Amino acid sequence: MSRLRGLPAAAGIFAAAIGCDALVGTADAGAFAIREQSAYGQGMSFAGAATCGTSVAGTFWNSAVVTCAQGLDVEGSLSLIVPSTEITTAAFPSSLLGPGSPLFFGGDPGDIGKTAVVPATTVAYNFDDRWYFGATINGQYGLKTETRFSHAAQIYGRESEVFSLNVNPVVGYRINDAFAVAAGLQIQYFDVILSQAVGIAPIAPSAVLNGDDIGFGFTAGLLITPTPNTEIGIGFRSAIKHDLEGMLAIPLVARLPIEVDPTLPEMVSFGLRHRFTDRFSMLGTVEWTNWSRFGTFTVVNSLNGLPVSLLPFEYRDGWFFALGAEYDWDDRWTLRAGAAWERAPIDDVTRSIRLPDDDRLWLSAGLSYHWSERLRLDLGYSFLTTFDTRINIGPGNPVYVPPVTFAADVDASVHIVAAGLKYSFGGRDAMEPVSPVYRP
């Protein structure tokens, strides 16, 4: 996603990326964020994710969704992410080390995406008529990419492997029949291991950067239920600053203890759900993520505090727009579908080999089967695609180190299959077709 600059010349060039998740392959929201937090929402491209419906998984986007609990609700999901991100190197002179160049040794980076599974869990408890408690356990960010060991852009990246775990306990309060509020604490573990070639030869060794940290933030939310058929949700997830501590290992040169302090962005989600008939509802989402705060970070030697290099990203703000529909076929089956457009924080200027992100289209479908009053199965499927994506590492790109230019075409798409279960230990019939938060 970016690169370390300013290392001694004998060490070569080292690139680095930042991302995280529990069991994550390729990031499927803007930059390295992970959106797969709910099989229920997956089937609608996460339209209306900050509202309730018959799910409490929206607590991730809007803490006030915890007030949708009826007794004790437990909801979990697993999302299988199958990405394809094929990078084809452009010919010389667009790529100094590409086809046609006498220095062309390694070939294309190949398909850098990795299949993986993303878990997410939400627990919500209705303590009494006013107070609610709950928690979400998931990974908000994630990235795992790996190129062929030898390729034309190996000095810009080989492997990025990152792990994170976010625990978000939440307290909610129902003010009256129409308004509910909530707030919570984010506790996030963040770990990263990154590698890149120190030279252009096919057998060039890799420099490796690793670091980890526990960071803290908060969440807040508002849920408005003006009628039994309408929900409006507004949620906020704060920025989290991480003080990563670890090691930079450069073969035959040095092992340096390092520190770097990236700040992950805050996010605001707006959701709307309206039931037009007893069976048919429409939903919408607008989401903003402050990726523009993700600029350039300094890597320092933790022994003396002196700068070692820079991590330049220079992202722009991300936006996500979704529209979906839900139809209760009968008392057992619910069908849903949705589409979304995502404006990526990474553009033609800042795109790199580690994360060749671009604006993307989401198309989704899903269903729920109510096994009983307490148990529900959710299934969701999404197809994501980008259009005419190209990497241009040269003057103006923040990762560029002269004179090594690199250009490539990127053919990227993702298939996502999600399955989830919700079990209610108490409360109303899960199939009752009214808003779970409106109490006339």
UniProtKB/TrEMBL annotation:
Topology term for the membrane: Multi-pass membrane protein
Q: What GO annotations for molecular function exist for this entry?
A: long-chain fatty acid transporting porin activity
The record's SUPFAM superfamilies line, in alphabetical order, gives: Porins
Could you list this entry's UniProt keywords, alphabetically sorted.
Cell outer membrane, Membrane, Signal, Transmembrane, Transmembrane beta strand
Q: What is its subcellular localisation?
A: Cell outer membrane
Residue ranges spanning the membrane: these are none
- Superkingdom assignment: Bacteria
Q: Name one GO cellular component term.
A: cell outer membrane
Q: What is the first-listed, main subcellular location in coarse terms?
A: membrane
Could you tell me which Pfam families the record lists for this protein?
Toluene_X
Tell me its family: Belongs to the OmpP1/FadL family.
Question: Know the name of this protein?
Answer: Long-chain fatty acid transport protein
Q: Which organism is it from?
A: Tepidamorphus gemmatus
- Upper lineage ranks? Bacteria, Pseudomonadati, Pseudomonadota, Alphaproteobacteria, Hyphomicrobiales
